[in-house]
Design goal:
This protein is an alpha+beta fold and 293 residues long. The chain has two domains: 6-118, D-amino Acid Aminotransferase, Chain A, domain 1 (2-Layer Sandwich), CATH 3.30.470; 125-283, D-amino Acid Aminotransferase, Chain A, domain 2 (Alpha-Beta Barrel). Helices cover 28% and strands 27% of the residues. It is built from eight helices and 16 strands. It has helices at 25-29, 47-60, 69-82, 125-130, 157-168, 212-224, 235-239, 271-283; strands at 6-8, 11-13, 32-40, 43-45, 88-95, 112-118, 132-136, 174-177, 183-186, 190-195, 198-201, 227-230, 243-248, 252-259, 262-263, 288-290. Strands 7, 8, 9, 10, 11, 12, 13, 14 and 15 form a nine-stranded mixed sheet that branches. Strand 3 (32-40) and strand 4 form a beta hairpin. It starts with 5 loop residues before the first strand and ends with a strand. The structure holds 4'-deoxy-4'-aminopyridoxal-5'-phosphate (PMP). 4'-deoxy-4'-aminopyridoxal-5'-phosphate (PMP) binds at residues 36, 159, 185, 188-190, 209, 211-214, 247-249. Residues 36, 159, 185, 188-190, 209, 211-214, 247-249 line the site of 4'-deoxy-4'-aminopyridoxal-5'-phosphate.
Length: 293
Amino acid sequence: MAEQVIYLDGKFVTKAEAKISVYDHGFLYGDGIFEGIRIYNGNIFKCKEHLDRLYDSAKSIMLQIPLSYDEMEAALVETLQRNEMRDGYIRLVVSRGAGDLGLDPRRSPKASVIIIVEKLAIYSEEMYRNGLKTISVSQRRNIPDALNPKIKSLNYLNNILVKIQANLADVGEAIMLNSQGYVAEGSADNIFIVKNGVLTTPPCYVGALEGITRLAIMQICERIGLKVKEEPFTLHDVYVADEVFFTGTAAEVIAVREVDGRVIGSGQAGETTLRLLEEFRSIVEVDGVKVFE
Ligand code: PMP
């Protein structure tokens, strides 16, 4: 196993050396963007989709990424190769960079790019079969007019406040509603419900990230002939669903067995959820960019 190295503005450094300025606006204000990406058996899963979302987020917040798209992909590949990382998690961060204490991004002339790759502690196979217990929380999703949840920004305080509520209830993930009471997403996952064989996930305008796992699941549904709708729904619809599951890069497709004390379906991962997990796992090693053969 190679010693862990981190990509920091064009250089490869050790974890101890990987330091940024205390004047970096990513640190001072959460001013920046990021991606969480998985590599499965040498394949960067949905690499293009992640980079597209990164560059779209950058455009939206007027952040100039100092690397071209191809240079960014090459930096990811090199970081994985140097770390001999065939299976793991990639955290790609672009912060506004060092500036002064004021908010003005014009004072941060150069964005910083950081790539960290690590092994991932994922849910046990038992959890995938049994499903998670979850709750809805009082913390609402940021409204799109204030900070659009489609932007994968470094400002995750909204999500962290949800995580705190989840921690207090001793659950691993929680359901966030938008300010009108429609279900938006989890703290770091998208959500789907299944009722009478039809899947529904909230449209992103409700207040959800355009999750790449979410999209992969919608594409799988189309391919295998399952109906999937993007429609707003409420907690009531979650409580009475036959199946509920979260999707995310780290979580993949994880069933929910209980929400706010209501048992969902059979109280275990449902048939559709498990089928989608299986289909999802069958594409993760092929759909993306190969780093190692
Ligand atoms: N919503 C939020 C708020 C997230 O941070 C994430 C990513 N962890 C997701 C949804 C899932 O997105 P993806 O499938 O692209 O990982």
